[in-house]
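name: query_chain
kind: protein
chains: 1
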Amino acid sequence: MHVHGRQILDSRGNPTVEVDVRLESGSFGRAAVPSGASTGLHEAVELRDGGEAYGGKGVGKAVANVDGEIAAAVRGLDAVDQAALDRRLIELDGTPNKGRLGANAILGVSLATAKAAAAEARVSLFRHLGGEEAATLPVPMLNVINGGAHAQNSIDLQEFMLVPAGATSFAEAVRIGSEVFHALQELLHERGFATAVGDEGGFAPDLESSERAIEVVLEAAERAGRQEQVGLALDPAATEIWHDAAYRFEGRALGPDEMVEFWEGVVEGYPVVSVEDPLAEDEWGSWAALTSRLGERVQLVGDDIFVTNPERLQRGIDEGVGNAILVKVNQIGTLTETLEAIRLAQEHGYAAVISHRSGETEDTTIADLAVATGAGQIKTGAPSRSDRVAKYNQLLRIEEELGDRAVYPGWEVFPRFER
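structure:
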């Protein structure tokens, strides 16, 4: 196994790691590592260079680790044995958060190796990871209005997502998403709002409140004639607005109990199927209280609180926190640990939502991962910007490859939601 790393640019123009893996047979795999703007305190460490180049965000050290220590350590390993390779990488790093070699270096090698192994077997990546039974396409969550850390605008909550769960196929879901997205652009333009897009491809208008952002998305769905086929998903990224024991956003300062009441009002007032990170990353007690109040009515997704970490997810399961986990491969740093987190969630009745990061590349691994694991949901931005659309296009190809075997779960992935 020959391993080579390089520095490339992500969708925000910041450096990130790309890794090539070539096997003795000549089979080849390439993977690029994403990067987040709204990052949890407990995520695996993304190794950056510091200094002046790229504002300190260079990844030369991580690339050097790929080409040096990591390349030497994985030489001779069997690419088919993903778990053994990832275990070797974890042991080599020797830290609990992959901070020595960098999770970005480790993940690049992990994912590129999986792709090389799939090429060796002459099967698609989703088939290599999921076997013959993998056939479930995910319901997409399209982030059509960006706020918070993803846009320079007046909306403090981060993501307002369109969920075309009423489609009968993934192809139809993409069509619905695109039609509503363009209706939203038209509507915002008519009302004098800017229609430039944020990091994840959604619009970033200066609306007066998050509630107004929800209402505008629903208006666009109605204009497109798709209101009966869509729900809404929200990601307020509450850790970003948690300061001095209060949630501070859009002129409000709400204590934990008040924030729980706020979300109860939102869920009652709008067709919301999912809320991600409604509370801050270490507010376990408030999370449990919110889950007790709303967990039977809406999907409550842990991102910053779980960070794709099986140990933190297990605590959530034990304490009744949330009912779903957001899955980001770079939060944990290896494919094997990612798959472990997904399996743990599914074994305990938690949903798994496969997710991009705000700093993305044209890499489409997460599209295959969603199908391989039967997760049923994917969050990868608006139908805008090639770094986002690449994932949707890959899923369209997978659906075509599956043909009559393809399954689109629709509303069934949100069993608590009554349409």
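note: The mean pLDDT is 95.
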